[in-house]
Amino acid sequence: MRLTGSVGALLARDPVVTLGIAAFGLFTAMVATNAITAQPGRHPQPMFSTRTTISGDAAAVQADPMIRTVQEGLIKTGHYRAAVDGRTGPATVDAIKAFQKEWGLEPTGRATPALVVAIDNAAAVAVTGSVEARAASLEDRMGAVPMPEPARAAAPTQTRASVPADLPEKELVRRIQAGLANAQVAELTADGIAGPATRRAIEAFQALEGMDVTGKPDRSVLQRLVDIGATN
């Protein structure tokens, strides 16, 4: 009775403010009830957050061509037995460290152009007993890879064509990407855009071929790809 009387007195004294407070309280209770109990799944932060963070497959890290090359090489040396996905995970890091320790290298667990060369040489030794044989060289690899029709038609018996000096940059990048894909260095789309994946693939290719490792899509890279028959 006393509480009812107090509310009535407050309502009589200032009805607008009192009804406003009551309406706000009712609205807050409805929102809280809906967020906590009326949603189809559990919201990570039902009272405060309205957006969820992208995770899992939607936020998957893009495959790195150099990591993929390292994984493929470490399979040949017997250090890696997981999936070849071009992504750095615990299995890849552990395999790199194991290889580095076995071959007297600093066990950093990182994939670098120098590591690509070391693994390539080790793979050749494992297969043939000789680094000079280079069983994993790209030129030998291209012998087992069908050349694209344009490249096969344009390739002379002995001497490959020289790369034109005035080749547009986008076409240069596109041909390099196509060549790297044909040589199985990386899974690239030949779109003429030199993104991070393309540059890392170029680094891996340059390391394997004994070139200066720059990651730049220049004429020397394309010329070497033409020389081994990976592109025209």
Show the helix and strand layout.
Blueprint: H1 2-13, H2 15-37, H3 65-77, H4 90-102, H5 113-128, H6 138-142, H7 149-154, H8 169-182, H9 196-208, H10 219-227
Summarize the structure.
This is Peptidoglycan-binding domain-containing protein. The protein has 232 residues and is mainly alpha-helical.
Average pLDDT, all residues:
75
Number of helices: 10
Instruction: Report the sheet with the most strands, covering strand number, pairing sense and barrel closure.
Output: none
Helix content: 40-55%
Helix-strand makeup class:
mainly alpha
Number of domains: 3
Q: DSSP strand (E) fraction?
A: under 5%
H/E element order: HHHHHHHHHH
The number of strands is 0
Q: Which overall shape is indicated by the principal axes computed on the Cα atoms? A: elongated
Low-confidence stretches: 46-59, 144-158
Radius of gyration: 31 Å
Task: Calculate the terminal CA-CA distance, rounded to whole Å.
Answer: 95 Å
Structure, explained:
It is elongated and about 100 Å long. The longest helix is centred in the first third of the chain and has 23 residues, at 15-37. 29% of the residues are buried. By secondary structure, the protein is mainly α. It is 53% helix and 0% strand. The chain has ten helices and no strands.
Provide key terms for this protein.
232 residues, mainly alpha, 10 helices, 0% strand
